[in-house]
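Reading group handout, session on sequence-to-structure problems. Before we discuss, look at one worked example. The prompt was deliberately terse, the way you'd type it at a terminal:

> structure G-protein coupled receptors family 1 profile domain-containing protein

The input record follows.
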Amino acid sequence: MDPNASAVNQNCSVYEHTETARVLFPLFYILVFLFSVSGNSLVLYVAWHKQQKFNSTSLYLVNLALSDALFALALPGRIAYYVRGFDWPFGDVACRLTAMVFYANTYASIAFMTCVSLDRYLAMVHPHRLRCAREPRVVRGVCALAWTLVLLANAPLLFRSTLDEAGGKRACMEYFSLEGSPALPRLLLLACTVSYGVPLALILGCYTSIRCKLSRAARQNPVTDRSGRGHRANGIILVILAAFVGCFSPYHIAVAQFAARQLLRPPLRPLSCHEKKAFKMALQVTVSLMNLNCCLDPVIYFFAIKTYKKRVVRLLRGCQLASGLSSSATAEHSSSNT
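And the output record:
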């Protein structure tokens, strides 16, 4: 290894536009926090308050909302981190827990989005086959298995420090150790393929199959094309696909291309300072996009559960009516006192 290149890399600061980031990232994550907490809390409240009999789709979506709500609870720590200029004040254990919650939410969201797509595919393309796979008892088992696999896959984050101290600041989850292991690029490519590539292929396959069935049904009997059930199922998967591609693709593509370049790099040639800065900037932007998924998931629930909109409207009208009655009672009490 070239000692001059090593010295340059040791003195390389990947933080650029820090002052801008101290304003933009906190504002962005405050909005994500507010939308995520309000949207997913509303989903959970409506779902549990009515004590409805959950079908397979609503079970998957409630688990998706629960994952997003738990993730939102970790956002205030990240907001404080960015306000302090990439300085984590809460210690190593809290940083590990934040990393665990972040990645668990990411891949739980991917898992449940894929499950919803497969569920709609079975309901529309094979309504009479594998009906047992859509029974609530089986779906609860699938959800438990998904949570177990996600937590086990991310558990190693609890046993490895994700803090990096430099320049008097403690950076949390900033990916400084990506050059540490020769096997890491291969593991990253494998992880991107299994946790992103396979789910994306399944969702695309489900969307294409439902679309093809609707087209065949319309050609054979134009009257069936007026039924909204098939088109609603197709629309649900289209919304999932758009959210999946928009939120998760940029991050996984950035990580995959970085890992591929690492594999093609000569063994003794380290990353240049410019490459580190470019990768760091790409991660900051793509991770922010990925975190937007917790705001978009309530939209999926809105499209997937046809009674959800009515329940939300009734709930808001009830709150408005209660507020009006309270104001009237207050006014009457004030007039009687005078």
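Points for discussion. First: The first helix runs from residue 3 to 10. Second: Residues 1-9 have pLDDT under 50 and may be disordered.
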